Amino acid sequence: MAATEGLTPAADPPIWVKIIDQQRCIGCHACSVACKAENDVPLGVHRTFVKEVEVGRFPKVARSFQVTRCNQCEDAPCTSVCPTRAMYRRPDGIVDFDRTICIGCKACLNACPYDAIYIDPVSRSAEKCNFCAHRIDRGLEPACVSVCPTEAIIVGDRRRPSPGLAQHLGEPDLRVRKPERGTHPKLFYHGGDGRGLDPLITDLTRPRAATERPIGATVTQAAAIMGDGGARAAPWGWRISAYTWTKAVAAGPFLLWPFLALGMALERQAWTLPLAAIAATGLALTVALLVADLTHPQRFYRMLVQPHWRSWLVRGGVALLLASAGVGLFLIAGLVDSSIFITAAGWLLLPLALALAGYTAFLFRDSKGCRLWQSPLLPLHLLVQAAVIGAGVLVLVESAAQLPWSDLRALVGILLAGSLLHTALIVSEFALSNHEAESRAALQALRRGRLRGWLWLGAGGVALGIALAVVSLSMAEPVAAYVAAGVVIAAIGAYEHAHVQAGQSVPLA
User: Nearest 10 degrees: CA dihedral of 361, 363, 364, 369?
Assistant: First the structure.
């Protein structure tokens, strides 16, 4: 117990902290092995690992070791985003988890700036280092502390520190990882080479031989880096990219409701019924994609029966439910063919469409591990994208409803203006993201990595749509308008996929 004096219970709840003395660490990996054995961690995932960092030039080369695990943040972003409180913070400050109520949404994986959380392949729930809370509760050391041969891992109560812990807490070179994220970690590093704390210290884009392991990368990172230029597997795959598009299809037309209410014949079933059907289909696909992306889809109901209202997943779920009810009313209004009923249902759907299209921006904002998504312009951009898609949907609906050219021309004008604004916002977001290393790395993956095809498909498609919209307006050509609408709708979907995946591509550990 020499490294963890002062573990006896006390009246006031302790505040547990952990210090890694990198000057003592010899890179033996005993802590990793003990952690796996104590917590029954399966192969392929880890709660703690030791990263090797080599610096200098031959023959003056040095190697240091950095033990990486959950940072036990004071302001833990993983607990804020969890929709069921499966990730939670105990009174003693330990950030723990409950695998039995986790729905497997993977929001916590993107919320963690340190890549400390994984989906367990056996339990299929989100898990991580929990300070060996079960041992702490029995007055024992965490497993990693008990096996460290050099006592490089020090654990103690910050309220009542032992002499050894107090001495380390007073060291001037004590560091935490990514202090700019504002999470206030309770895992500190002493000594060693500070470059080990920066996952971007290695050039991740330089071509390497198949057998060369990048310096400063874990084995998993090395495999990803040498495979396709990316260093992190995206927790949210194509389903989440598609969900941002399907909900825009559902919400977009109703963002333009003021134009519809003031400028079109609202009692016409020829366009109200197709519009209601498209919105209902978009909502159904959105819910299906979200549920299918869960590792525990059978637990989806927990978001409703025990919601964590700080989570934007829960708030977004409420927006989906309310929007579905609103679309149902709009469909009934269309079947009744009542102008007053249609108008009332449409105005009700306008604020719901705003919430539906925009809430993902706040969910992405809480994903502190994805710096590309932190742009202050993202809420506006999502609303603009939804409005552009909505204009495109209305143009296609018009082809069946055969509305007068004046109505179609106004819709094409909205499509054109929105597409230009969408393009300007992309340029602005790229410019705002260039001041951070992680954002620059994500943009590098977006422009030159495996996602570049999706990016240029999206950008090229919007450019083509703009050109066709100009042709349609200048020549009063409806066919060009229909093609422009379809191209822009698809192109925004391609861009969204590139943007969502690029935000998750940067190595965090």
Answer: 160
Q: Which residues of 469-493 are buried (b: 16+ CB within 10 A; e: fewer)?
A: bebbbeeeebebbbbbbbbbbbbbb
* CA gap 206, 215 in Å, rounded: 12
Q: Residue 179: is the preceding peptide bond cis (ω within 30°)? A: no
Describe the chain by its helix, strand, coil percentages, rounded to 5.
55, 10, 35
The tens digit of pLDDT for each residue in 392-445 reads: 999 998 876 666 777 788 899 999 999 999 999 998 877 776 667 888 888 888
The partner residues of 154 in beta bridges, in order of sequence, read: 19
| Euclidean distance between CA atoms 367 and 362, whole angstroms | 9
Q: What is the largest CA-CA distance in the chain?
A: 84
Could you tell me the two tokens for 371?
Answer: 């710096």
Asked whether 194 and 175 are in contact (CB, 8 A), the reply is: yes
Residues 163 and 4: their CA atoms lie apart, in Å, by 10
The single residue listed with the structure tokens 């809430």 is 359
| Cα(169)–Cα(159) distance, integer angstroms | 12
Q: How far is CA 1 from the centre of its chain?
A: 40
How would DSSP label each residue in 277-288? HHHHHHHHHHHH
CA–CA distance, 147 with 32 (Å, rounded to integer):
10
Q: Which amino acid does the sequence have at 482?
A: Y
Residue 252 CB coordination number (10 Å): 29
Distance CA 452, CA 445 (A): 7
How many Å apart are CA 499 and CA 397, to the nearest integer?
Answer: 28
The two three-digit tokens of residue 154, written as one number: 């020090």
CA distance 48 to 317: 34
- Residues in the chain, total: 509
Which runs of E-coded beta strand occur in 294-437? Answer: none
Read off the pLDDT of residues 239-262 as tens digits, 9 standing for 90 and up: 999 999 999 999 999 999 988 877
CA dihedral defined by 371, 376, 382, 387, rounded to 10 degrees? Answer: -160
**Cβ partners under 8 Å of residue 139, min gap 6:** 7, 8, 9
Q: Is 106 left (phi over 0), alpha (psi -120 to 50) or beta?
A: left
Under 8 Å CB-to-CB from 36, ≥6 apart: which residues?
46, 47
Contact 49, 196 (CB under 8 A): no
Question: Which H helix or E strand runs over 136?
Answer: helix 133-136
